[in-house]
Amino acid sequence: MKKLLKFLTCFLVLGFSVNAQKPMTHEIMIKLKKVGAPKISPDGRFVIYSRVETSYNLDEQTSDLWIAAADGSSEPRKLTNSKGGEDNYQWSVASDKIYFIAKRDGDDAPQLYVLPLAGGEAQRLTTLSTGVNDVKFSPDGSKIIFSSRVFPTAFSDSASKKLADEKKKIKTKARVYHSFPVRYWDAWLDEKQGHIFAMDLKSGAQPVNLMKDISLVQSPGFRLGSYNFSPDGKSVVFTATAEYNTTAYQSAKSNIYSVSLSGGKESVLVNDETDYSSAEYTEDGKYLIASGSAIGTKIYYLNRLYRFDASTHSAKKELATSLDRPINDMEMAGSSIFASIEDQGVDRIVEIWVADGSVKPVLGGETGSFTGLSLSAKSSVFAYYYQSIASPPEVWVSSNTTLKAISKANDAVLAGLDLQKPEVIWTKSSRGKNIRSVVLKPTGFDPSKKYPLFVLMHGGPASSFKDVFGYRWNPYILGSAGYVIVMTDYTGSVGYGEKFAQDIQFDPFKGPGQEIQEAAADAIKRFSYIDGSKQAAGGASYGGHLANWMQATTSHYKCLISHAGLVNSEAQWGTSDVIWGRELMNGGAPWVPTKTWKEQNPMRFAANFKTPMLLTVGENDYRVPINNTLENWSIHQRLQIPSKLIVFPGENHWILNPDNSKFHYAEIQGWLAKYLN
């Protein structure tokens, strides 16, 4: 197996650069097929997945379901042909039907459809005015549960329609709030709540709202989490909080509840000092498995796995205690749990035993990332995503340790590109930490030449530069004009243990910025092809924050790029959609004169700003609102520093429109060329 994995990762990372000359361009990247997460049939014979055909013209963009033999014996074929696309697709228990959510002609909101594998057209199963989300099937496949966002007092679809019609008639347009939060990412919040609905597929009955008699929904802080069927299919276990309206001054805690499929009041299953995000019973009904994180004053807590006795919901036991790594996704498999974990820049698949919590490696090496798990009835046959920095996600199947490429949607295009192999280096920082960085050489690399350096900084900070393909800050495009890229996982990054992620608390910029610069200096020392006299740095979100910190503390960069970056921590605290975590990071509210607020706010050091800077922002970004970029722009203009401001109307925290994305890349490349060439 180890030899097979080594071959697989070498082929996928290195294979595309052999005898290839073309660089990755935005035009090539935008036309790559986007393959959705796989779903393998319970009998292990077939895999379905979505495939998006992208285009600069959004009217020409399509998304459809594809199906392929799980053993790779046949080429994938398209199952659907609709403009809207399908979501939440999954198999029937008997592997003879495919269910999916779609918004098709005549639908005012997304509805559930079923498509017989034997042939025929997809049939609509629901007509709920508020739509259908996240469908789950009972163990025998006869019933479903799903969520829908409704008004708190609307426990029937007729009531939802009536309230919606009444609100449309109100001429006054005002948003009124009594508690926090008021907006999230790029949308203003309203009074609607997520409710759980149940529906009997065999009888053809209409969906029933299970929350009618649940007291939680009366709380202004109610927010639904995840949900699953009980093993007997007679009740639903779910996570929820009644404290979402308190997140201005504390972390909201979710508990574990259950409700009968016939309705009634909720039962509290688990209420302790853990914030639970998911809960699911083992197939034999013996245990309840829950994931959750601690509640405390740390800036970051790892999500951990817990086992409870299913009959009493007590005897809490933590599983995989030695893991100390984030879990991306997981699926129950008899007496064990298969999970994808993030580990030092890659995603691996492991098996966690329910009985004793032990962990066994399944798939993963030092390169590439394995996620999107989907298990068949036999856990030895499963589908998954594989991707790397050089290749977008594709569907693979593992059958008794034999690995098969299934989707292969982009192989032909990637085979013609010069995608240099990334190199990982570890730097011992001045603080004694081992810091991981990825070094990427430019297209057409010539070892006899010297290349400028672009230091790319990731967002988060609870994120990392994983070996995954990126569309928003693709390093192959950024370096295609002749730049070496260095990407460093500074303190605060995840995949290196809970403590490493927590250590950024009270030191949001100084320590990470120092590590980034030390790693860059290490790369320059190691690789003679890097021209250390020509350096630039940039990033988005937290990477944009760090770019502004570099502006405040060093002048050795030729230019800087900050997208969605804060320049004033105090203003960011008060205008962002989330604030409590910022208070934890800085050791108190902004009016408390903590050392961090005083010494690590870039705006307080504006007198040091000297470096030419490109500033970009989405006008609808509520995570790092536009006021921070405008304040930064004002500082640069006031100090007469060469600078450029680009505002994208209609965009949020990310620049998603293909034409806007192309323009954004071109502006970044133009800025680098102006100061590095």
From TrEMBL:
Location of the Peptidase S9 prolyl oligopeptidase catalytic domain: 471-677
Keyword Hydrolase: yes
Isomerase recorded as keyword: no
Keyword terms, alphabetized: Hydrolase, Protease, Serine protease, Signal
Signal peptide span: 1-20
Molecular function GO labels: hydrolase activity
EC number: 3.4.-.-
PANTHER family: DIPEPTIDYL-PEPTIDASE 5, SERINE PEPTIDASE S9 FAMILY MEMBER
Protein's name in the database: S9 family peptidase
